[in-house]
């Protein structure tokens, strides 16, 4: 199994946990847990594979479905033990984002995609599963919250993967660097309250 396949499995597992946590906050049944976990875990990677003209990863390897399903069941029976499910969601989402950005960028690179496409695929893999999760759960998506640097963290992480590989030629080193930068930026963002500038409307001039 390749390094980036392992990272895809890690992203699926942790993103599925976040989907199930959102389901727990919405007090859904076990089917709702499985649906949100699967949508979150598989959405970003599916978009990536369709755009890269690959067989979607969970169709090529159905074990990904089992991972997402197991995460949903596990959270269904244990979410009540958490002191703050939202805080757990933020932390799990940060790790999932880091895994997914690196996996998406690495897989695009392995497919021979140009640098700009590598960065876009890293962002798509990292951001779209959570976006789908939040839209379906009728919540403001984390990636679109006012001033939230979520997508910026994904962008910086994907650029790090690209730059580290260009400098070293080592995919493993670029994966570690991209993961560390994405996770570090995301955690620092919500721990320190970092925000991006937002548009402020001004009165029209006559």
What can you tell me about this protein's structure?
This is Membrane protein. One of its GO terms (cellular component) is plasma membrane. The chain crosses the membrane at residues 6-23, 30-51, 63-82, 89-108, 173-194. It is a single chain. The chain has one domain (3-192). It contains eight helices and no strands. The protein has helices spanning 3-25, 30-51, 57-60, 63-78, 85-110, 115-136, 150-168, 171-192. Helix 1 (3-25) runs antiparallel to helix 5 (85-110), helix 1 (3-25) packs parallel to helix 6 (115-136) and helix 7 (150-168) packs antiparallel against helix 8. The longest helix has 26 residues, at 85-110. It is globular and about 45 Å long. It starts with a helix and ends in a 14-residue tail after the last helix.
Gist of the model:
By secondary structure, the protein is mostly helical. Helix content is 75%, strand content 0%.
């Amino acid at each position: 199994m390749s390094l980036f396949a392992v990272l895809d499995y890690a992203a699926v597992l942790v993103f599925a946990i976040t989907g199930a946590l959102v389901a727990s906050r919405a007090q859904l049944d076990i089917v709702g847990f499985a649906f949100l976990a699967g949508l979150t875990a598989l959405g970003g990677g599916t978009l990536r594979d369709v755009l890269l003209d690959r067989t979607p990863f969970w169709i090529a390897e159905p074990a990904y479905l089992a991972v997402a399903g197991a995460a949903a069941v596990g959270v269904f029976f244990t979410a009540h033990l958490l002191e703050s499910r939202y805080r757990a969601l933020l932390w799990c989402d940060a790790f999932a984002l880091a895994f997914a950005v690196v996996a998406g960028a690495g897989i695009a690179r392995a497919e021979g995609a140009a640098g700009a496409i590598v960065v876009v695929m890293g962002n798509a893999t990292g951001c779209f599963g959570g976006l789908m999760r939040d839209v379906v759960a009728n919540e403001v998506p984390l990636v679109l919250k006012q001033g939230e640097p979520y997508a910026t963290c994904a962008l910086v992480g994907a650029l790090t993967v690209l730059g580290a590989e260009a400098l070293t030629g080592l995919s493993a080193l670029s994966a570690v660097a991209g993961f560390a930068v994405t996770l570090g930026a995301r955690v620092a963002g919500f721990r320190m309250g970092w925000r991006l500038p937002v548009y402020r409307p001004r009165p029209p001039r006559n």
